[in-house]
Amino acid sequence: MEGETRKMMKYVFKRIILVIPTFLVITMITYAIIRLAPGDFVTMKAGLHGELTRGALGKQFLEEERKLYGLDKPIIVGYFDWLWKFIRLDLGTSREDGRPVATRIAEALPVTLLLNIITILITYMISIPLGIINSIKPGGLFDRATSLILFILYSLPHFWVALLLLMFFSSSEYLNIFPLDGIISDWVEEADFLTKLADVAWHLVLPVITLTYGSFAFLSRYARANMLEVINQQYIIAARSKGLTFNRVVFLHAFRNSLVPLVTLMASLLPALLGGSVIVEKIFSIPGLGRLAFDAIFSRDIPVIMAITSFSAILTLGGIFIADLLYGVVDPRIRLEAKL
Amino acid sequence: MKSQSYWNVVWEEFRKNRLAMAALFLIAFLVAIAIFAPIIANNKPYVYIDENRNIFFPLFIDYPQFRGIDFRSDECKGIKIFPPIPYSYSEYNLEEILMPPDRRHIMGTDEKGRDLAARMIYGTRVSLLVGFIAVAIYVTIGIIIGSIAGYYGGWVDMIISRFIEMVICFPTFFLILTILALWGPSLVSVMVVIGITGWPSVARIVRGEFFKLREFDFITASRAIGARDLSIIIRHMLPNAMAPILVTASFGVASTILIESSLSFLGLGVQPPTPSWGQILSNSNQFLDIAWWMTVIPGFAIFLTITAYNLIGEGIQEAIDPQKRRLYFAHKN
């Protein structure tokens, strides 16, 4: 046991050594891309007033504005300025509206989290039972039919499905059931909690469908494959030949063991979903993190872009790290050093 | 008995899979459409015989006397043989905006009165090109990096593996979005960015295959007779690792087409007047409830193409590993 803990510590240490440079490289590249791009935030801002860019006065204005936003410094210096602030948890202020970046993220994050947690829950609730049913009779009619349907679902582009849903379920021409955009109606401001909840749920139906169908196609195939692998193991055959009923073996022994990779997958699913919600949030005008990122990129709001990039990088790196650790915890046969 | 090569066996297995074969034919069909786009959709006739029985081939030869003439109008008398879609992708007619599909415009028209069928046909070029080139770039990079790691092993492999793990953590879509939004959208940048961020999956596969192959006797034998490293890699190891690479490449083309159409949908892909499927979809956003054809048709084309590539990938996967008949999905980032 002593040796196991030491191995674990060694593994954690090795991981952290890798995680930090990865984080630095990701943020550095992002910063460089923004700064090296033709034109900057200041000329964009001055562009609104036209004449401000011309003449000696214009030049002076541009210089002073650049100084204000730290754009006068070389890229390397600018990056390390940002990093030093980031380490002290100072995310800076958004250039779009002058509010702290942390506030803007704190506003957007709950929306995206709500959307993604509901999506993940529904995905798991549908795909695990489906995967098990399919694995009981592999190659059967039901298995083949669902395989094909899931395959088709997997290939459907998100944004197309979102548009079709909007077209058929929230337009005056066809069925006008669901709201077109946003996550809450204006009139519920005064209403009681339950009405508010119902209203938000109403708004989330179409976005959640859009985010769910693709990942449950992926997940139930995965659940099925895991289940098949477990069912063919020696100990399952042993349990069957001992005289245990089929149901008992499938649901008690096989199911529990097939869950292992699915649980660990969850750790890496969340960051992927955060990235994937950019388009969905854009189409449904949901004021979440993806939308914030999208708008920030277009208005060259460096502090916001950098904050979201580092946030998603930390989520991804942390997700992979936790997934690897969980693997080792739930299945001691997987040796950690084999993964390194 | 005739001995069968490995590729013959794989091909025989692949051919048994009807869905995968159908998908292969669909892609071949799309490639043909992309190549022959200018002679499928064009507003000039193949053959034009005027009243004096002079024969012209306006589509193939540029006649100075016909410049600016609309061959479809009644003023242009004579015998005319038009392509199946007698419109070019960029000509617009403001009198015929947002027309539903009918006999003249088989896929309807868009908000500028451009023929949607012509635009769809030209859009095929973008989707196929982006898929092929971006994947070709990253398969090449992946093969080079993966073979170095897999062939030499040891500390070289250690460094490369760490590097691969680093690149896998990159928020690719976000990165592409930033680059395109700030540096200006273009087809070339879409291909290059996907190309230089997509290689780790290929590199990992090549590395894994090479690790297995390294131990085989024929590799040891090649070394013993003094073959150079490069020649062993290219002539003996790579051909044996090609099948799994093809699987990844096929899934990769599917996801690249998806990324390109998403970017075009956001207005960051190919720039007008060049049409692409994602761009048509993006325009349809404003006319959702009045022009279903602008949403349904390009979206369905994207969906069909992605499905076809996924089916081909799965077909190859099953053909090289018939025991494990299970679907393999490339994990989405």
Topology overview:
The complex is a heterodimer of chains A (340) and B (333).
Chain A: H1 2-36, H2 41-47, H3 55-69, H4 75-87, H5 101-136, H6 141-155, H7 158-169, H8 193-231, H9 234-241, H10 246-283, H11 289-298, H12 302-330, H13 336-339
Chain B: H1 6-16, H2 18-35, H3 37-40, E1 47-49, E2 55-56, E3 79-81, H4 116-152, H5 154-168, H6 172-183, H7 187-197, H8 200-214, H9 217-224, H10 229-265, H11 277-284, H12 292-320
Antiparallel strand pairs in B: 1-2, 1-3
Note down, in words, how this protein is organized.
Chain A has 340 residues and is mostly helical. Chain A has 13 helices and no strands. Helix content of chain A is 77%, strand content 0%. The longest helix of chain A is centred in the middle third of the chain and has 39 residues, at 193-231. Chain A starts with a helix and ends with a helix. With 333 residues, chain B is mostly helical. Chain B folds into 2 domains: 6-37 and 123-332, MetI-like (MetI-like fold, Orthogonal Bundle), CATH 1.10.3720.10; 44-81, no CATH class. Chain B has helices spanning 6-16, 18-35, 37-40, 116-152, 154-168, 172-183, 187-197, 200-214, 217-224, 229-265, 277-284, 292-320; strands at residues 47-49, 55-56, 79-81. The chains are: A mainly alpha (340), B mainly alpha (333). At the A-B interface, helix 1, helix 6, helix 7, helix 8 and helix 10 of A face helix 5, helix 6, helix 10 and helix 12 of B.
Rounded to an integer in angstroms, the radius of gyration calculated over CA atoms of chain B is 25 Å
CATH class of the largest domain in chain B: Mainly Alpha
CATH architecture of the largest domain in chain B: Orthogonal Bundle
Please provide the count of β strands of chain A. 0
Distance between the termini of chain B: 48 Å
**Please, how many domains of chain B?**
2
**Helix proportion of chain B:** 55-70%
pLDDT < 50 stretches of chain A: 336-340
Main β-sheet, spatial strand arrangement of chain B: 2-1-3
Uncertain runs of chain B are 325-333
Succession of helices and strands of chain B:
HHHEEEHHHHHHHHH
Question: Which chains make the largest contact?
Answer: A-B, 58 and 46 residues
What is the tally of helical segments of chain A?
A: 13
Average pLDDT number of chain A: 78
CATH topology term of the largest domain in chain B: MetI-like fold
Rg measurement of chain A, Å:
25 Å
- What is the total tally of β strands of chain B? 3
CATH class categorisation of the domain at 105-339 in chain A: Mainly Alpha
Structural class of chain A: mainly alpha
Question: How would you sum up the global shape of chain A?
Answer: globular
Residues in helix, % of chain A: over 70%
